[in-house]
Structures are given as structure tokens and as C-alpha cells.
């Protein structure tokens, strides 16, 4: 029974997997996970600094801070 991993992991067919292609894919997945974690930490930190008292509405300084959170040039 064919598992379908050959096409996903750079297999050459015939049931053989290419270890180099698998390693590259794992490296990419790790890099993506690290970038997502970094972005989440930065977002959390920025939110804590910009939004002092979460509530029903934002005051002027919180609105400015929230606008900067979405600007990639600020990070």
C-alpha cells in the first residue's frame, strides 16, 4: 500500500525516500515555526506595552500603539 510520502518528501519513486530532501523540508518547517513563535512573542510584548488597560475601547495613545503594531517597519 502506497503511503504517499514519496511525493511529499522528495522521493524518487519506487518507495525510496531522499534523506536530503526530507532534511531540507524539516529545516524549512523548523524555520517557519521559529518565525511564527518570534512573531507571536513580539505581538504579545507589544500588546502589553501599548494596551495598558484592555476594555471596551482604546484611548488615543492605545490606538496609536495598536496602529504601530501592524506596521512591519516598526519591528
Automatic annotation (TrEMBL):
Pfam families: zf-Tim10_DDP
GO cellular component, one term: mitochondrial inner membrane
The entry's keywords: Chaperone, Disulfide bond, Membrane, Mitochondrion, Mitochondrion inner membrane, Protein transport, Translocation, Transport
One record GO biological process: protein transport
Domain Tim10-like: 25-63
Topological type in the membrane: Peripheral membrane protein
Xref: SUPFAM superfamilies: Tim10-like (SSF144122)
Chief location: mitochondrion
Subcellular locations according to the entry: Mitochondrion inner membrane
Gene3D superfamilies, per database record: Mitochondrial import inner membrane translocase subunit tim13 like domains (1.10.287.810)
Entry domain remark: The twin CX3C motif contains 4 conserved Cys residues that form 2 disulfide bonds in the mitochondrial intermembrane space.
Subunit: Heterohexamer.
Protein family per UniProt: Belongs to the small Tim family.
Function: Mitochondrial intermembrane chaperone that participates in the import and insertion of some multi-pass transmembrane proteins into the mitochondrial inner membrane. Also required for the transfer of beta-barrel precursors from the TOM complex to the sorting and assembly machinery (SAM complex) of the outer membrane. Acts as a chaperone-like protein that protects the hydrophobic precursors from aggregation and guide them through the mitochondrial intermembrane space.
Entry protein name: Mitochondrial import inner membrane translocase subunit
Organism: Mus musculus
Amino acid at each position: 500500500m502506497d503511503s504517499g510520502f514519496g511525493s511529499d518528501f522528495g522521493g524518487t519513486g519506487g518507495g525510496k525516500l531522499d534523506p536530503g530532501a526530507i532534511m531540507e523540508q524539516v529545516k524549512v518547517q523548523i524555520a517557519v515555526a521559529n518565525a511564527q513563535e518570534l512573531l507571536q512573542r513580539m505581538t504579545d510584548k507589544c500588546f502589553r506595552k501599548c494596551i495598558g488597560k484592555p476594555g471596551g475601547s482604546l484611548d488615543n495613545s492605545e490606538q496609536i500603539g495598536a496602529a504601530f503594531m501592524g506596521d512591519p517597519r516598526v519591528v
